[in-house]
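The material for today's practical consists of a large collection of protein records. Backbone structure tokens are a discrete shorthand for how the chain folds in space. An example says more than a description, so a record of this kind follows:
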Amino acid sequence: MEVKQLDAQVSVSDQCGPDAMSQLADAGVQVVVCNRTETEAEDQPSFAELEKAAREQGMDFVAIPFARGQMTRAHCEEFQRVLSGGQRIHAFCRTGNRSSNLWAGAKCLAGEDPRDLLEQARAAGYDVSGVVATFAP
């Protein structure tokens, strides 16, 4: 698992499993958000396994699953609600790309400066330009 920080509240990574939850908890994460679909790959842990491991480490677990290229405004609004709790969040998917795009979409809906979002994502190795073009006011 390669963790990349998008801003002070949100980090993202590629796929993580139950064994990674202690590392996330030690890093101060309070909410783990899974953006991959439940059946994306046979070797990935189930949402139930991930939630159990997160809760054992004192973290909340939220699934906002969507397939690559299928992110909607509703997904962004749901993530925006998670962000509004003010807790430290770690989001993941297969590569971290969907999670970074979801973050950018939610931040755009909240009125964040699109240029700042592009720069922050780029610094973490992600291109969110398509999302920013779609969701920026």
In short: Residues 97-109 form the longest helix (13 residues). The longest strand covers residues 10-13. The chain is about 40% helix and 15% strand. The beta strands are 4-5, 10-13, 31-34, 60-63, 89-92.
